[in-house]
Amino acid sequence: MSGPVMLAHLIRERLSWRELQPRIPEPDLVMDNAAQNAAFALAGREDGILGFVYLYHALQVTALVRPGDRVLDLGCGPANQLAQIARLNPEARFTGLDASARMLESARETIQRRALPNIELRQGDMTTLAGIDDAAFDCVISTVALHHLPDCAALAAAMRAARRVLKAGGGVYFVDFGRLKHLATQKFFSEDRRSEQPEAMTQDYYHSLRAAFSLDELWQAAHLAFGADITRHATALAPFMAIIGSAGRRELDESTRQIGRAMYAAMTKSQQKDFRLYARWLKAGGLDLPFPLH
After folding, report:
1. Is 72 helix (H, G, I), strand (E, B) or coil?
2. Which residues touch 152 (CB under 8 Å, ≥6 apart)?
3. pLDDT at position 37, please?
4. Angle at the Cα of 10 (from 199 to 174), degrees rounded to 5?
5. Nearest to 26 by CA among 157, 177, 218, 175
6. What is the pLDDT of residues 220-237, one digit of tens each?
7. pTM of the predicted model, to two decimals?
8. Does residue 245 sit in helix, strand or coil?
């Protein structure tokens, strides 16, 4: 991330009286384009440009997951995020759900490559979760997938479906982009790493930012479904990332902390720098890491 330039954009977002950009739904609500999917899967690998983002959210989710829990991931995509969470929680069982058969094929490759026996995959619609029993899961999560929904009605339906399949006292963690005020800010985030990523990834990122729900839209849908059991956080100055979730459900043991620290240590220096910057923006927005990594 280009920290000083990003800061300038976010200060402008904060001080601007302009209304949010209009929401423009994704051109493809189901990610089934081969080039697009391949670029996204590559970016999310351990050594990819999104690897540091996935580790951050894997650590946050881990504070919700108890040994033996069943966890449902809505819109799991190629399962790069889910794989990091499953590695941190070997005694929990995970179900990755996605509407795209092509994405699920990529997810199977990820699971096989990382040798993770505690993940199963399922094709389905997150707005209904048809075929899944009530109160079947201890946690429901979704990372950067909700913006693929067509409108606020579908977002509300997805939240209601998630609540239906969640056990009483279960944990939730939803993270996605927040809609911004300036087109220039959206272009900055999508193009900041243009030279390091396939063009399909740059275009997909831009479309995702244009399709983002506002922080208020995300919160309203989640709050109606889950009530007072959740809180919301966003990056400081402007919500380029928004997180809605429940309180931690366990104190992380030393073994889990060691795995997390090893995953951080295995990243490149550039990834570690990006991780720290990302974590600082969210800490300034009120959300700290569950434990220090160094």
Report:
1. strand
2. 213, 217, 221
3. 56
4. 70
5. 177
6. 999 999 999 899 999 999
7. 0.94
8. strand
Q: SS3 of 148, please?
A: helix
pLDDT band at 217 (very low <50, low <70, confident <90, very high): very high
Q: For residue 200, what pLDDT is reported?
A: 79
Q: How many residues does the chain have?
A: 294
User: Which residues on neighbouring strands pair with residue 242, listed in sequence order?
Assistant: 176, 234
Helices (H), 16-120: 34-43, 51-62, 80-88, 101-114
Both tokens of 4, joined, read 């000083």
Residue pLDDT, tens place only, 248-268: 999 999 999 999 999 999 999
Distance between CA 255 and CA 266 in Å, rounded? Answer: 17
110: which 2 tokens?
Answer: 């990820």
Is residue 176 within 8 Å of residue 212, measured between CB atoms? yes
Q: Which helix (H) or strand (E) holds 93?
A: strand 93-98
The pair of structure tokens assigned to 179 is: 């809609």
Looking at residue 31, its pLDDT comes to 56
**Per-residue tokens: 248:** 């931690």
Cα distance between residue 176 and residue 216, in whole Å: 13
Residue 83 contacts residue 46 (beta carbons within 8 Å): no
